[in-house]
Amino acid sequence: DSVFAHLVRAPEDPILGVTVAYNKDPSPIKLNLGVGAYRTEEGKPLVLNVVRQAEQQLVNDRSRVKEYLPIVGLAEYNKLSAKLILGADSPAIQENRVTTVQCLSGTGSLRVGGEFLARHYHQLTIYIPLPTWGNHPKIFTLAGLSVKTYRYYDPATRGLDFQGLLEDLGSAPSGAIVLLHACAHNPTGVDPTIQQWEQIRQLMRSKALLPFFDSAYQGFASGSLDADAQPVRMFVGDGGECLVAQSYAKNMGLYGERVGALSIVCKSADVASRVESQLKLVIRPMYSSPPIHGASIVAAILKDRNLYTEWTIELKAMADRIISMRQQLFDALRARGTPGDWSHIIKQIGMFTFTGLNSEQVAFMTREYHIYMTSDGRISMAGLSSRTVPHLADAIHAAVT
Ligand code: PLP
């Protein structure tokens, strides 16, 4: 008998499992709104033009080799990534108070940051928003932190529960870590306003809570890289410390290249360099060093003025298509006279809409309309097109009437 005979089958990942179910459905009208990846108006995955150009440059450069990167990754990439999120003129960068390490996309950056904190920070409790991306509690628990939640979303308004958020962070123990979605909160699409961010900042600094930003959608939310980085820059601008996990999965469409970065903003250059030395000890036994290809693409784009400009145009086009899908879905529900207030569809931001549909309604839409989404009613706006909006609107209408 197998030494593994006692194993029970593990459940599918709740998000990736949606695609597994979708793939099994033979219906020609099936629609996958579970994936967190951009699709074109034709429903196809997109490789950005600038990415193609950068890859061509890399291929043509015969001096490039496939040697190992250092433990912390590509130095040039790390510098450019810190600049992208903190701003080119960031005093923290100029004062060498930021240490940045290349990690395996957003997930890997969160995991390395979590393990570093579990080893070296005095407070092991991390507060994550309720709800949040399903992987967050697992990443931080396995990193060795103790996970608690703070109120974030109010189902009644389908908006931010700002009072609840302030109360929960206000009663958190001094020094606790707080995970913040930098923009385009997943799964709710609900972000604090800049005024609310300022109140959150003041509260957190007054209680010495440590901010850990998850920036998976910079530029993807509003279409502007700077606007989407504003909350992070407010926290760095006050001179305090924080961690930032960046991902290029969505904003450069580099999902499978697994390219991200963890930056830790410190109070002095001396501390930052000791932090970096300890990050190496976290990374080395985990995967030794990160992959070279994706980081080389990103560095080629970020350092070249023309490629950078072209990237911002392509990024804005993706963001704009998503915003237009919101409007079209909202208009289609209105045209059908679908009961309820659907204005949250156009108010929410980023890749997802938190529809407010419950799990029975979701199951109904999958069964009767072959529309696939997570059971919490989250739909990926990036998976929609002008052609499929009417089908989705029909399904929502039928589900709620
Ligand atoms: N954080 C959030 C909030 C996300 O939505 C995602 C992706 O869905 C990630 C992090 C990490 O993605 P990746 O590891 O592909 O960069």
From TrEMBL:
GO terms for cellular component: mitochondrion. Its EC number is 2.6.1.1. One of its GO terms (molecular function) is pyridoxal phosphate binding. Its cofactor is pyridoxal 5'-phosphate. Keywords: Aminotransferase, Pyridoxal phosphate, Transferase. It is an enzyme of class 2 (transferase). GO terms for biological process: amino acid metabolic process. Residues 29-396 form the Aminotransferase class I/classII large domain. It catalyses: L-aspartate + 2-oxoglutarate = oxaloacetate + L-glutamate. Important for the metabolism of amino acids and Krebs-cycle related organic acids. In plants, it is involved in nitrogen metabolism and in aspects of carbon and energy metabolism. Homodimer. Belongs to the class-I pyridoxal-phosphate-dependent aminotransferase family. In eukaryotes there are cytoplasmic, mitochondrial and chloroplastic isozymes. This is Aspartate aminotransferase. The chain holds residues 80 to 480 of 483 of the full protein.
